Amino acid sequence: MSAMQGLMYYLYTSDLNHLQNINDCLAILINAPYFCLSPETKPSQDHYKLIKHCQRVVMSELCLDNCLQMLKIVWEHKSAVLQDKILGYVVQQYFELNAKREDQLLDLPNRLLWLITNRVIVAQQQVIMQHLNVNNK
Q: CA 94, 128, 100 angle in degrees (round to 5)?
């Protein structure tokens, strides 16, 4: 079943069990505004359950092997909610990604790479500050 078939099946049945493929869920999330499924498009029906389900599928399937590709896709499609979640994962895994997938990391758009490194620096500063606060007590 394709993403479009899965979406149509959901719209007619409200059944989400058939939407378990990361690519299908990613396609639905990226296109949600175009189909008036996201809250910012003020749909006539609330599709919160669909959006949350697809976000869970994408995040549960996210790994070192696909996170940079997924981030690049959501960045190009300006999918803000999903972008923030995947960006958070990439920031958490940054040092391992840098060691194992440096070429893919450097292949990202410059603004996205800047955003990642900026968030990594902020996260590291927070860790250092927490460590200093613990040691000063």
A: 15
Report how far apart, in Å, the C-alpha atoms of 86 and of each of 11, 68, 69, 72, 96 are.
26, 9, 10, 10, 15
For 45, counting Cβ atoms within 10 Å of its Cβ (0-12 exposed, 13-18 middle, 19+ buried), the class is exposed
pLDDT band at 53 (very low <50, low <70, confident <90, very high): very high
Residues contacting 46, CB < 8 A, separation 6+: none
pLDDT at residue number 112: 94
User: Which single residue is written with the structure tokens 């070192």?
Assistant: 64
* pTM score: 0.81
State the Cα–Cα distance between residues 104 and 85, nearest whole angstrom. 19
Token readout for 109 is: 């758009």
